[in-house]
Design goal:
4 strands, Aminoglycoside 3'-phosphotransferase, Chain: A, domain 2, two-stranded antiparallel sheet, 8 helices, globular, two-stranded antiparallel ribbon
Amino acid sequence: MLRRMHELPLPPDAPPKDPLAFLGMLGSTLAGFALPSFVVDAVGRVRAEPPPANARALVLSHNDVNPTNLVYDGEHLLLLDWDTAGPNDRFYDLATLAVFLRMDDDTCRALLSAYEGTRVAELPTGFAYHRRLVAVSCGSAFLHLARQVGHAGANGEETLDSAPALADVYQQLRSGALSLASAEGQWRFGLALFKTSAAL
């Protein structure tokens, strides 16, 4: 389905999406908020990493392929909430899926092989770059949301090792022990995405 979506023509004169600019905007909204050092370091690394050269044309991207925007009816996968759609790198949506669905490298190669219609033996540099960018950008977005609803920020004890794994946060959400509507749920989800970024 993603391949068919990406084959749709781009809207005329649609400005390309700039995920790095979005990350910069999130950084400014988090200024003065107590963040763990591993979060600050991860944002710095991603912002300093030069985007890989891309000779391929931009494609129509959803730009927010997180699990809450996916619906599977048993036969088709549907994407909801197209407010952020626009031109972007062809790997951006695929990298977002890979981050939120916790895909390992073998699964990512299978996803890219299905998308490209040919076997992908090595993860492309652009895909790997966008996985890191997505994890840090989405992590920053959740920390921003947590701040907006009153989270106090880091208490000085959070480390990369103590940060929750994304799988654990998903389990807590499923069991009802954690809610993404709460400041703590948004904070923990954000930290889990930063922990994910460290492994990419």
